[in-house]
Design brief:
Blueprint: H1 6-19, E1 23-32, E2 35-43, H2 50-66, E3 75-80, H3 91-95, E4 101-106, E5 111-119, E6 123-128, E7 131-136, E8 140-145
Helix pairs in contact: 1-2
């Protein structure tokens, strides 16, 4: 069985995501036994909860069943939101992480760790040890939000 490419699926899946107020972050399709596994990763300002994933899954199933993009193949559909440590690749990713601690590896080899205080279409401002540092997205090789855990003494226990 030959799996359809994401290029064929994207024009079917992306409008359904947009109609639900969600950004399509990732889409993959691959054989999984006798079925196809279709994975859809979506995000939105404010995050995506389980109910929104379930609603989108139902809508996508209906659209995929009505289209011929998957041919006669049986499929399993997985709809999820990106993990907390997913790469920050676009301005909207940075915007959605305002207030979070980020580690950015720059093209010049430098590493910056700071809290995102602002994000525009071209750069982000990080609070690095109390000092504001503007980081142009064009200068970033890779960046991820960091998982932070509170120490027991910080929460008063």
């Amino acid at each position: 069985m030959s799996a359809p490419t994401t290029d064929l699926l994207r024009p079917v899946v992306e409008p359904v995501c947009a109609a639900h107020g969600l950004d399509l972050e990732d889409l993959s399709v691959r054989p999984a036994g006798r079925r196809l596994l279709v994975r859809v990763v979506v995000d939105a300002d404010g995050g995506v909860d389980l109910d929104r994933c379930a609603e989108l899954s139902q809508a996508l199933s209906a659209v995929l069943d009505d289209s011929d993009v998957l041919g006669d193949s049986s499929y399993t559909l997985e709809v999820s939101s990106p993990g907390v440590s997913r790469p920050l690749r676009s301005p909207r990713h940075w915007r959605r992480n305002v207030g979070r601690l980020v580690r950015a590896h720059l093209l010049d080899g430098d590493e910056v760790i700071g809290r995102v205080t602002a994000a525009t279409e071209t750069d982000a401002v990080l609070d690095v040890e109390g000092a504001a540092r503007a980081v142009s997205y064009d200068s970033v090789r890779s960046a991820r939000a960091q998982v932070e855990f509170r120490r027991i003494d910080e929460v008063g226990e």
